[in-house]
Amino acid sequence: MAKESMKITPWEVSGNIDYEKLIKEFGVSKLDNKVLERIKKHSKKLHFMLDRKIFFAHRDLDWLLDEYEKGNKFFLYTGRGPSGPIHLGHLGTWIFTKWLQDAFNVDLWFQFTDDEKFLFNDLSIQEIQKWTYENMLDVIALGFDPGKTHFIVDIKHIGLMYPEAIKFAKKITFSTVKSAFGMTNENNIGQIFYTSMQAVPAVIPSILKGKNVPCLIPLAVDQDPHFRVARDVYPKLGYYKPAIIHGKFLPPLTGVSGKMSSSKSEVAILTTDSPKEVEYKIKKYAFSGGQSTVEEHRKKGGNPDVDVSFQYLRTLFEPDDKKLERIYKNYKSGKMLTGELKQILIDRINNFLKEHQKKREQAKKIIDKFIYKPSTSVS
Ligand code: TYM
Fold this sequence. Notes:
Blueprint: E1 7-9, E2 12-14, H1 19-26, E3 29-30, H2 33-43, H3 48-51, E4 55-59, H4 61-69, E5 75-80, H5 88-104, E6 108-112, H6 114-120, H7 125-141, E7 149-153, H8 158-170, H9 174-181, H10 189-193, H11 195-199, H12 204-209, E8 215-220, H13 224-230, H14 233-236, E9 243-247, H15 275-285, H16 294-300, H17 308-317, H18 321-333, H19 338-363, H20 367-370
Parallel strand pairs: 5-6, 5-8, 6-7, 8-9
Antiparallel strand pairs: 1-2, 3-4, 4-9
Helix pairs in contact: 6-7, 7-19, 9-13, 15-19, 17-19
Ligand 1 is lined by residues 10, 77-81, 89-90, 92-93, 111, 113, 116, 198, 217, 219-220, 222-223, 247, 249-250, 259-260.
């Protein structure tokens, strides 16, 4: 059967994702051992998502590290389009962002693009505001430092955003946006403008401090096209180009390709799922690399490389390389059955979510500390 061709834009991910091909098509650099060694020099240890190449590509990371070594500290910038609940894929990207914040002791600017979700989805402003609040709780629950983490919400902070966004908009043509995102004359004019809003947070600290500050953006590859479009504009406006570090997608429960998405909530694990829901979804939907009968599985073994439960352990829930290796071998040899592998994952996710949901509740009391105010002092 012919492989469905890969399509990756911020609003659509489909087909079989070939990350090697993507590196060439997007014009990004592989995160090779040389760069990883440079990161390690400062962070002491490498996060397992780097060792395992879950974060696998970058733009201008060498430049960012050169600046860091000269004493020119960077800040982190990432974001969320608040159109629904948070799933484990989003969390992976932000768990890694939190590690970067701690490892380099840097500020994080976190953008909530309520305008984007209004322009691209069939949701009211009120619904999006509710999701903005709910999604903020998930971000805070991951333990970001309130003194170093600044939330900006596009509509709320439009006074800060707009004067800069129009400068980007003036230098990006409709024809560029058409070819980068496949937009047509039928797209509404807000959608055409939107990339300029996502470009802005990469320069906010530079504006506030009155001097250029390097920026590093952790994201999954679907968000890269915005920055590909905006990249050449930064220097034209007198700013540094931001560096980017790209993560792979956590797949949906049903398969190793594509991305987990909250619009297909039956095949995504949401941060608000109950233990029973987690168990049900994994038992029913998690694509298995096992054989069809126990006898056959014992004889031929399973395939952990396509097994979604194994991939979730590798990407998020089993940081210990030795334990992961043991699971890999036992599953491949047929010693471990699919039901046993799924149970390991169910237990891991439920333990994680129990804590996360507790912290999510506590986050309600401190949310205000994270929302950027002009009086906030920025280190
Ligand atoms: P959004 O809300 O679609 O996604 C938020 C972040 O999660 C990543 N992501 C995933 N990572 C791993 N596996 C998945 N299955 C998966 N699905 C989503 C996204 O790449 C993203 O990093 N427009 C943006 C919000 C935004 C932003 C930014 C993101 C504003 N500024 C700067 C990254 C960097 C959005 O709608 O993301």
